[in-house]
Amino acid sequence: RQLITIVAEAVVERRLIDDLKACGARGYSVGHVSGEGAPGRHLLALNGPSVRIESVVTDEVAQAILDRLARDYFERFAVVAWLSTVQVARGERF
């Protein structure tokens, strides 16, 4: 399975969750985070924390989510995403 991790500005949290589910994700976890990247301190910190959304999904669902992010988010919002291959107990649930 793939663990997809998305870090985004909080204003798109609900929309991202809806899109993950529409792409086939069966569940997700959300955490409010802060941090700093290559360009320096996250400028959107004034609008509140960023969110980290994680979901364990199949390869096909992971690709659908990445395609949706590229199409609808990357150019318009502060969003970054990555995949990690994971082993999970009860893999059929994902």
Percentage of residues in DSSP E strands: 25-35%
> Level of helix content?
25-40%
Strand order of the largest sheet: 2-5-1-6
Write down the overall mean pLDDT.
Answer: 89
End-to-end span in angstroms? 8 Å
Sheet with most strands? 4 strands, antiparallel
**What is the CA-based Rg, rounded?**
13 Å
Total beta-strand segments = 6
Label the overall shape. Answer: globular
Provide the structure class: alpha+beta
Report the total helices: 2
The ordered string of helix (H) and strand (E) elements is EHEEEEHE
Low-confidence stretches: none
Task: Summarize this entry quickly.
With 94 residues, the protein is of the alpha+beta class.
Summarize the helices and strands and which ones pair or pack.
Elements lengths: L1 E8 L3 H11 L5 E5 L2 E2 L2 E2 L8 E8 L1 H14 L6 E7 L9
Antiparallel strand pairs: 1-5, 1-6, 2-5, 3-4
Describe the structure using short key phrases:
single chain; 94 residues; alpha+beta; two-stranded antiparallel ribbon
Walkthrough of the structure:
The protein is of the alpha+beta class and 94 residues long. It is 27% helix and 34% strand. It contains two helices and six strands. The strands form two sheets. Strands 2-5-1-6 form a four-stranded antiparallel beta sheet. The protein has a two-stranded antiparallel ribbon with strand order 3-4. The radius of gyration is 13 Å and the shape is globular.
